[in-house]
Specification:
TPR_rpt; 14 helices; two-stranded antiparallel ribbon; 362 residues; flat; 62% helix; Serine Threonine Protein Phosphatase 5, Tetratricopeptide repeat; mainly alpha
């Protein structure tokens, strides 16, 4: 038994030592060594792979350098390439922010009517007061105004027209007609703000010019300012000279009133337009459409009245039938009662007149 004790002791020491070795060994642990050349403790794993985990306590030791008999903390060297990339990204971001923050410069119109006027007598209209907020709506049909009579070519060269208007504006800088033409030019282009400003400038010189008032009314009508468009068109119709045809004012009023739902008044103006300009197809087409389609309000009122009349007649018939039925039932009951009483009185020898007197006294 004693002979086995040394073997058991050696076995126990071996087991304990292996346990200590396994407990101190970790997967992925860091090994440290003294670098004599650099004079500091470094990670042995740094020479193998940079991706292994680092111990915070040993990182402090690696930051110390032995110089002149003293240990000093060494500042970590920053990755120059990483810093450069960060700087490049920051510069790109700053450039993007500057581009986004920089206000976009509005493209200046090629031709204008000069500096906008301060006020006109029509600035109280909502469509004119909000002229800077309107969306752009091109009106290519306005180009027909500039088409030469007798010309077979239906297209209008806008570049040529623009050069012509510039020349006219230079020759007549305060002409109402030139301002009106430039306003129509911008109607074709779709620049609502410039067209309204030109019409305002023309009206500041001649407030009652029928043609300018009508053109401004057409612009506001396209922007769905119906009240303002009706006001300006009626004003244009009143101010139209007697020696000039006013069919266009009547046609414009017909279109606006039709959009408003006033079909009867709209049809009246369409008829006036046809009388003053026979064969004008748009007015004829609108009038034909309105005459073929009854007014929704009239149709509704008519159906409502017919329904009330039918209900009234049915109620009267039912009431009269019930009254006649009640009257006939009462008459039959009374006759049956009188006949029975008469037969009984005859059998008993009683005078029927006495029975009637008793009933009356009761």
């Amino acid at each position: 038994m004693t002979a086995d004790l040394p073997g058991i002791s050696y076995m126990a020491l071996y087991i304990i030592s292996m346990h200590l070795v396994n407990s101190n060994t970790r997967v992925g642990s860091n090994h440290w060594k003294l670098n004599v050349d650099e004079g500091k403790v470094v990670q042995a794993s740094d020479e193998v792979s940079d991706s292994q985990n680092q111990d915070d306590l040993m990182n402090i030791l690696t930051d110390k350098v032995y110089e002149n008999g003293e240990w000093k903390i060494e500042k970590r060297k920053k990755c120059s390439k990483c810093e450069q990339n960060k700087n490049d990204e920051k510069m790109k971001q700053d450039q993007k922010e500057k581009l986004n923050d920089k206000p976009k410069e509005k493209q200046k119109p090629s031709i204008t009517c000069g500096k906008p006027v301060n006020t006109t007598q029509y600035d109280h209209l909502r469509g004119i007061a909000n002229r800077n907020d309107h969306s752009h709506i091109p009106e290519p049909e306005v180009a027909l105004i500039f088409k030469k009579k007798g010309s077979r070519n239906s297209e209008v060269d806008m570049n040529t027209l623009e050069e012509k208007l510039k020349k006219n504006l230079k020759e007549k800088p305060n002409s109402v007609s030139v301002y009106n033409q430039i306003g129509n030019f911008w109607r074709i282009k779709g620049n609502t703000q410039e067209s309204i400003e030109c019409f305002r400038k023309a009206l500041s010189i001649l407030p009652n010019n029928a043609e300018v008032l009508l053109n401004l009314a057409r612009v506001l009508f396209n922007l769905q300012y119906l009240d303002d468009a009706i006001f300006l068109t009626r004003r244009s119709l009143v101010m139209q000279p007697t020696n000039q045809n006013s069919w266009l004012q009547h046609f414009t009023l017909g279109e606006i009133l039709k959009a408003y739902g006033h079909n009867q008044e709209a049809a009246l103006h369409f008829r006036h337009a046809i009388d003053l300009n026979p064969g004008f197809q748009p007015a004829i087409a609108n009038l034909r459409e309105m005459e073929g389609t009854p007014s929704p309000s009239v149709t509704q009122y008519t159906l409502f009245i017919i329904l009330l009349l039918v209900l009234g007649v049915l109620f009267g018939v039912i009431t009269s039938i019930e009254a006649n039925f009640d009257d006939s039932s009462e008459v039959k009951t009374q006759r049956h009662f009188n006949r029975a009483m008469a037969m009984r009185s005859i059998k008993l020898g009683i005078n029927p007149k006495l029975i009637r007197m008793r009933k009356l006294n009761c």
